């Protein structure tokens, strides 16, 4: 039985009940208007193939933060972040590729006590990551339950505006919505030397000019969010102090004054949409 990975979004699907060694017919994640099926049609691969073609690169953007990035890039190309706290370690988002070197490096830092994923485009190989670290619980917002392509007992569907995935860690999962109803950001108050960090994935999304962010319903298909949603998201995030913002990719970081960058970016967005 093979859990195939979609080559466009990188999300792993449960083996087919009727033909367990054949890939699914289609990827519902990519058929949604927020994503797309590539010009060559639906294509599939496996973790074993990825291990033969790619490697994971490790970096430490700041103390108590480990970044995992697959090279060459695959699918959407997001990175994972391991946030280390005295109460345990949380893996924020994950990559489709998981290998022994990464498992060993993370185990040397205390392993993974919880996993939290921002939104369905980044669900990737979350079940593989959980099983590699003793069945670590996977925190997903219940509003996106229908987008889980590989169900597993480790998945915990939380509801409401916030969740505490590691009691005593200070970490808070915040349901920001917008891109997906269950879209989640991670607030890490001890990050950035105590000035606070927000891990936003792509809501909001750090843009090429890293003094700014943006807010979209679909990034690849360029479908904007309505201004009321942008105002709501900006007002919500203003409740959480953060000086640095980590987006979902290595070069998408607002290093300083990130909370102000979100506020002025929301104001600019609303002004341009009238």
Features:
20% helix; six-stranded mixed sheet; 26% strand; alpha+beta; 6 helices; seven-stranded mixed sheet; 274 residues; Metallo-beta-lactamase, Chain A
List the helices and strands and how they pair.
Blueprint: E1 5-6, H1 28-31, E2 44-45, H2 47-53, E3 55-62, E4 65-71, E5 80-85, E6 88-92, H3 100-108, E7 114-116, H4 126-132, E8 138-141, E9 155-158, E10 162-163, E11 172-175, E12 184-188, E13 197-201, E14 205-206, E15 213-214, E16 216-218, E17 223-224, H5 227-237, E18 244-247, E19 253-254, H6 258-273
Parallel strand pairs: 6-7, 7-8, 8-9, 13-18
Antiparallel strand pairs: 1-2, 3-4, 4-5, 5-6, 10-11, 11-12, 12-13, 14-15, 16-17, 18-19
Helix pairs in contact: 5-6
Describe the protein in words.
The protein has 274 residues and is an alpha+beta fold. It has one domain: Ribonuclease Z/Hydroxyacylglutathione hydrolase-like (Metallo-beta-lactamase, Chain A), CATH 3.60.15. It contains 6 helices and 19 strands. The strands form 5 sheets. Strands 3-4-5-6-7-8-9 form a 7-stranded mixed sheet. A 6-stranded mixed sheet has the order 10-11-12-13-18-19, covered by helices on one side. It starts with a strand and ends with a helix. 40% of the residues are buried.
**Beta-strand proportion:** 25-35%
Helix content: 10-25%
CATH class: Alpha Beta
Poorly predicted segments: none
Structural class computed from helices and strand pairing: alpha+beta
Q: Could you provide a short overview of the structure?
A:
With 274 residues, the chain is α+β, with helices and mostly antiparallel strands. The chain has six helices and 19 strands. It has a seven-stranded mixed sheet.
């Amino acid at each position: 039985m093979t859990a195939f990975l979609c080559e466009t979004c990188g999300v792993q699907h449960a083996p087919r009940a009727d033909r367990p060694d054949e890939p699914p017919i289609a990827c519902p994640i990519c058929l949604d208007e927020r994503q797309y099926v590539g010009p060559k049609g639906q294509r599939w691969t496996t973790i074993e193939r990825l291990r033969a073609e790619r490697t994971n690169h490790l970096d430490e953007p700041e103390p108590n933060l480990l970044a995992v990035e697959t090279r060459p890039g695959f699918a959407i190309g997001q990175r994972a972040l391991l946030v280390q706290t005295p109460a345990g370690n949380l893996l924020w988002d994950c990559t489709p590729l998981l290998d022994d070197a990464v498992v060993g490096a993370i185990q040397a830092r205390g392993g993974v006590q919880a996993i939290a994923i921002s939104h369905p485009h980044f669900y990737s190989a979350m079940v593989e990551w959980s099983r590699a670290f003793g069945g670590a619980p996977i925190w997903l917002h219940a509003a996106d339950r229908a987008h889980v392509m590989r169900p597993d007992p480790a998945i915990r569907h939380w509801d409401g505006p916030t969740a505490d995935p590691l009691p005593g860690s200070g970490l808070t999962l915040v349901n920001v919505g917008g891109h997906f109803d269950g879209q989640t950001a991670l607030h890490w108050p001890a990050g950035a030397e105590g000035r606070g960090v927000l891990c936003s994935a792509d809501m909001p999304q750090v843009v090429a000019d890293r003094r700014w962010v943006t807010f979209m319903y679909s990034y690849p298909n360029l479908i904007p969010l309505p201004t009321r949603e942008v105002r709501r998201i900006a007002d919500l995030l203003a409740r959480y102090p953060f000086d640095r913002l980590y987006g979902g990719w290595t070069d998408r970081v607002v290093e300083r004054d990130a909370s102000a960058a979100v506020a002025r970016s929301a104001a600019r967005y609303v002004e341009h949409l009238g």
